[in-house]
Amino acid sequence: MNYFGLLLLFHVASSVKHSLRYFLTATYGVEDFPEFVGAATVDEFQVGYCDSNIKTAKPKQDWMRKLIERNPEHLEWYSQKCLGSQHVFRANIDDLKQRLNLTEGPYILQRMNGCEWDDETGEITGFNQYGYNGEDFLALDLKTLTWTAPKPQAVLTKLIWDAKKARLEHNKNYYIYKCPDWLKNYIRHGKSFLQRTESPSISLLQKTPSSVVSCHATGFFPDRAEMFWRKDGEQIHEDVEKGEILLNNDGTFQMSVELNVSSVPPESWKRYDCVFQLSGVGDDIKITLDKSAIRTNWVYSPEFPAAPVAGIVGGFLLILLLVIAVVVLRTKKSTDEEKQYSGFQLVMERIKR
Ligand SMILES: *[C@@H]1O[C@H](CO)[C@@H](O)[C@H](O)[C@H]1NC(C)=O
Ligand SMILES: *[C@@H]1O[C@H](CO)[C@@H](O)[C@H](O)[C@H]1NC(C)=O
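That's the Major histocompatibility complex class I-related gene protein-like sequence above. Prediction below.
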């Protein structure tokens, strides 16, 4: 099972907002899942991991490894936090079991916390949210320094946690000072990785002559990209189906946009082109709709009309498989609350499977 993939779900495009997020999940009575899993992301890329089996924190990404090599105490801090949180979460689950009168598992407590920093406005926001068994449980309101309970079952816990003033003050300090300091430091070190751009290769794909033509771009970075079809240089929306941006295994992205060509007469094909734009990169990439440029595995065969024959494992299918093998489907841009909700639910879904 891939526990890390789901973290990438939270990848939301934004040119100036940076984020440092921690995802902690404690489970009780869930088979094949470590009792405790922690992960950290910077600008939605996973940079660290720990779990109750390995009992130590591990950096991810080369730049984070280098940073940690120079500051071993930083990794030590994370390792201790990871082990400490495991015990705290376990105690919390025990409390909740009693408080909610739960007699049957699974018991899954999750936390997503961290901070965001807008490098243009300098604005800093902290967040700390808990989910229980896949649903929102409590969220910290840093302005009032109280917990918000979206469900009646959480109210009792809210009142108990609201009374823990020292912990709340500690929370506040952490989210307003320490977390943004670390985030800024990470961004400085990860700059060449996080702020690089890579252009994709683009191709036109079509399963059969009567299928839609898919304009497919893969290998681009970051995921702030647009792709669309044009007719006579004007963007069109009719007969166009745009796919989501997906993550490749190598950390780059791919996307495709389909054009239904069934009503386009052959002589008009060259009036259409597909355009890819990568944010921050001036040059658009264009490809003109052209029969000879299309990659397909469809082989015309008079004896077996309409049957896709040999070579089926070639280009198109391979690319389809790549699309399917993509680590995780990413959610659309959403508010923090929605993100957190979908995140908690997704972990649940993975656990349930
Ligand atoms: C807790 O659950 C048990 C068994 O379902 C039930 O008998 C008991 O009344 C419940 N207690 C409370 C306080 O809800
Ligand atoms: C393409 O358009 C035609 C005619 O508008 C329609 O009948 C057909 O179902 C469409 N194909 C797809 C795959 O949407």
